[in-house]
Amino acid sequence: MATEAETGSCEPALTVDELAARAGVTVRTVRFYSTRGLLPPPELGPRRVGRYGPGHLSRLALIEELQHQGLTLAAIERYLSRLPEGLSAQDLAIHRALVASWMPDGAEETGREELERRAGRALTEEDVDRLAAMNVLERDASGEGFRVDPGLLHLGVRLLDVPIAPETILAARTVLLEHARATARELSRLFRDEVETRAPDVAAMKSLSAHMQPLVIQALVTAFQRTLNEELRAAYEDAARG
Known about the structure:
The structure is a single chain. This protein is mainly α. It folds into two domains: about 1-100, Multidrug-efflux Transporter Regulator, Chain: A, Domain 2 (Orthogonal Bundle); about 165-240. About 65% of the residues lie in helices and about 5% in strands. It contains eleven helices and five strands. The strands form two sheets. It has a three-stranded antiparallel β-sheet with strand order 3-5-4. A hairpin with a 5-residue loop joins strand 1 (about 45) and strand 2. The longest helix has about 40 residues, at about 200-240. It is globular. The protein starts with a helix and ends with a helix.
């Protein structure tokens, strides 16, 4: 059974139709992922109707991003099975954000009504401006439509309620991308050297990459989360002493 942290049962629950609409997938996809164990079971509400929370939404976004990265369903299953127990919706969103580029090529065209349906709430012009400032979406030439990444949208919407300036979020994004690029470059060099030592051909390089990619992604995200928690804990302790 999913934990309260992951399902987000303290927040308004979603029906399977609402969850699918928010995630931009079909109900059939949600149920397929559930049968494969990729998605925790819903909580049963009145009349035994399944109710889903923010953790389910974050998992669907993470699964979608791993698919965009070229991972097979089996690799995604292995990746998710290695995640620590009791991850919150925010923890899963961090995993997804670090796996993803900030504004992937797969961004979708959408209108205002569909945007708000995906967001699960009405959006003011200030909200839209903040989402645009965070690069979660961008307006089209007409100013009436948007290019939006459905996977990042729900994370951006949650950030609307956090008292942090968009400039700070963008600065954090720059730091993440710079360090992620440097890490990816160094890991690629290590893998290339390993392949050239054993079997210097492109096929071997691709095979090694396919096997290592999910492991490397998970190792990076886990290391980042632990390090960030340690740094935040130290900052809180310093503030308390001050």
